[in-house]
Write the structure tokens for this entry.
Amino acid sequence: MNSSNPIQVREIGWINVVFLSLSPLLAAFGLWYWIKTASFNWQTIVLTLIFTTIIQVSITAGYHRLFSHRCYQAAWPVRLFFLIFGAAAFEGSALGWSLDHRQHHNHIDDEIKDPYAITKGFFWAHMGWLLFKPLDGRRDESKAGDLLEDPLVVWQNKYWLVSGILAGYILPAMIAWSWHDFFGGLFIAGFLRAVINHHSTFLINSLSHCFGKQTYSDKHSARDNLLTAILTFGEGYHNYHHEFSSDYRNGPRFFDWDPTKWIIKSLSFIGLTSHLKTIREEIIVRKRWQMTEKTLRQKLQKRNPAIIDNEWKALDQLKEKIESAFKHLTSLKNQYQDIKKAGQTILAQEVKSLKQEIAKAREQFFDLLKAWHDSQLRVFTLIAA
Ligand SMILES: [Zn+2]
Ligand SMILES: [Zn+2]
């Protein structure tokens, strides 16, 4: 995109170049020396796993879903925790991270405006973009209003590096010192762990933008990828996330591997998080079905349409019915939301009958979708025959 723009020379960010090159070397040296000196012990391994987890979750639940997208609200101890341990991922401050990320969402795949556009290649999206200073030398602070209102975010923006060094290197080293493994705490739970956190996050910007399924939309490069979902505690459902970025879940179905959503939800039971935003089920299901429908249409265009003519007509009729059932269900749900928002005094009997109508409309919508999927299966059988 924007390929007509002239090539713009960017200044190399030497601090990042040195840090991103040196930390894997230090991690590799530390691991080699740790094993060579027979220092291996399970306490340090467990400590590394714990630090990897809390720091990665501080990025996914904190930097990403809370600060960048405002998918939910969190009490100050939770925000402080995410800010302190998020800094230990050495991915910058929450403010800077969020501004870059908002720009990525607003200008996805744009070679100039998307800071880590996959259209500039896998390495660029993964970490190449970090080796240069931003084009105009600064970020778009106009998108930071809500973040600057949070004194904790402003504080962390000033002191994130000190906080990161203390929480990410010194703290694990001190803990491991208690079982006489200061070196392992620093190099394994510190340097090696930071490299794991780095590349897990970076894979969302690279791998999840080129490998995986476009379950909800093919209008952008984001893809749903189980491998990155596992590595990043649920962030790999990236196609869903780019379609519905206000949802606190990245994997919306109960069985989707998204521990971050389980953590945010669990914290809501004890009042530490609230106002969890979700997208309505029928909107998600319709979007998924629309993608399936589009893919089927593209496949069938390559075949002889006469073979499946009748089936295709039936699918088209069902499509119309699904769309009108969706509209009906949406208007009923909006009606119900309006009543709740306005706090209208309405007879209990009327609310009850509206709820019954919603249940009926929902059932009809899902029955039609099922009928569509059955027809789709018949089409596949005919094609295969
Ligand atoms: Zn993305
Ligand atoms: Zn995002």
Notes: Residues 348-384 form the longest helix (37 residues). The chain has two domains: 14-274, 281-384. Residues 1-7 have pLDDT under 50 and may be disordered.
